[in-house]
Amino acid sequence: MEKKTRVVEKFDWTLCFILFVFFLTSCATIYSAQTTGQYGDTNYFIRQVLNYVIGAIIIAVVMIFDNDQYRKLSWYLYGFGIFLLIFLIFAPESIAPETKGAKAWFKIPYLGSVQPSEFMKIFLILTLSKLISDHHEKIDYKTLKTDFYLLMKLGITTLIPLGLIAKEDMGTGLVIIAILVGMILVSGITWKIITPIFFIGASFAAAILYVVIKIPELLDKYFNIDEYKLNRIYSWLDPESFQSGIGYQLYKSLQAIGSGLITGKGFGERAVYIPDNHTDFVFSVIGEEYGFIGASIVIGMFFILIYHLTKTALDTTDPFNTYICVGVISMITFHVFQNIGMTIQLLPITGIPLPFISYGGSAMMGNMFAMGLIFSIRYHHKTYMFSSNA
Prior knowledge:
By secondary structure, this protein is mostly helical. It has one domain. It contains 14 helices and 2 strands. The chain has helices at about 1-10, 15-35, 45-65, 65-90, 115-140, 145-165, 170-185, 190-215, 215-225, 225-235, 250-260, 280-315, 320-345, 360-385, and strands spanning about 105-110, 110-115. Helix 5 (about 115-140) runs parallel beside helix 7 (about 170-185). One of its GO terms (cellular component) is cell division site. It is found in: Membrane. Pfam families: FTSW_RODA_SPOVE. InterPro entries: FtsW/RodA. Keywords: Cell shape, Membrane, Transmembrane, Transmembrane helix.
């Protein structure tokens, strides 16, 4: 009985409650979204419930291991993820068919599709966390040289999966970059190195955007950029001109969210048709049905989640755990900002789902793996973290 009591006390009930609220929100939104008649006999509500059940099992399994075991496993998991990404490239169409012009999923009989890049994000977070914590344990005296050496290790480790992912899935590639940026900021690398690198990166991104908008013929001439990818940028800047084609979803998303006004139209009372609104454009359903108030509550839920993850990062005394939390925070924050941003024309459409709310098996499993790491940190270290001597 005493052991059972300790287990109950060490479990992160706050995070559990947050995920339960997301579960209710996701299921209600997807149930409503699939009533438009575009889905046929497929019941995505039931599938999303199953995704959450599988996610709960993943959390339970991930919680078994503590931080020392994850430090030992990190490079093995990283290598396994790289193997899957390489195998995906050469796998036959029967195993890895192209979906919407991208070869990013394995098709597994009776289980559906699995996207290895979703798991690679978590493997990368663990590996970068190990690299940073090991580096600081081995280096007694920080110099520009040691900081630059750490930056190179982080960059090379990230560049390998990024190169394998970005070609087929630019959205996930951007998430990988966001994870790297977030972890660099807390890695202890001096700002004398970080500042010029970020300035150069921002300048390069601004230059590319300027070329895309003002002189796109240069991209076609020297870089042979796919016209479809360019049109995604143009449809973002002027969705009304592309509303009959590639800008259709964004144009309809703006209509849906705008028509929701302050309080929304009510559950199931939607009038704007958006294809596949149960996945990347699920926020449009929330905006139309529940208006500004409902959308703000959902955004507030993510703020609460990020706050809890930040508190976990500050409470733990193990740097490896802190870096894991930062990686997860960077990943979730970018997902939320990018997904909501693309539905309101703040950012280009990249196909990034809204964490814990959008329908998607692989995305849900990857996010639950990340939450499992947070549960593990709290479970295995909570007594020490919150003791009076901490």
